[in-house]
Amino acid sequence: MLDDFFVRAMIAGIGIACFAGPVGCFIVWRRLAYFGETIAHSSLLGVAMAIILDFNLVIGIFASASVVVTILFFLDRRGGLPTDTILGLLAHGGLALGLVVLAFIPGMRLNLQTILFGDILAVTKFDLLQVGVGGVAALAVLLWLWRPLLVSTVSEDLATVESLRPNRAKFLFGILVAAIIAVAIKIVGVLLIVALLVIPAATARRFATTPEIMAVGATVIGVASVIAGLYSSLIYDTPSGPSIVVAAIGLFVATRMIAVTVVFLRDKIFK
Question: Which of 54, 64, 137, 248 could form a disulfide with 199 if both were Cys (CB 3.0 to 4.6 A apart)?
Fold first, then answer.
């Protein structure tokens, strides 16, 4: 069964959605969408370093993304510049530096479109293994960090009083996001991975009554987006990665319209 490229793509996409959804909830709650985008953009430098040093692409991306998280955490603690300014510097600086380094590699045959937009239909059995192992590890780390992150999202002072070490949780969460981007970047690309982290969580937020329900809802919506996007890509011959994101956007718009309609009808009936 795994010899079928479409089945492999479906399994990989669903696997990513299962751990991107819960992690994306904290990105939405803590307003870190630009943070995720910064890590994704700067990961192109990790691609260049992996090619130069001839080692695994996932390891190179994770290493460069972790360095960016460390620099961001250090600069943010010093308080010299606003956080959004630091994010802008690291995002565009890392992306530009990665492209420049790639240009100096002799005979470089890397398809940049694949890095930017992914190629989920080219997923191998080894990629599936990476997604599976990485996903289980990511969910385990998130479960360990769940309470410190949740309490510090509400109030960092409260988390400090309860000895939950919010700064450590914040740093480890950044490393976790870096790991997720490293695992998923080949499949959905630099420019689309943040969309899978943010859009399903933002969609689920409208209907969730507890953080746990929102995490489950984001996972379900992410899985539905992958299935709908891949089938629409197969039927209409459109790019797979962008089709998944378009499907996620479609679900977001549809749920918003349903919510607005329900509120409108409720006001009209009970007015």
Answer: 248
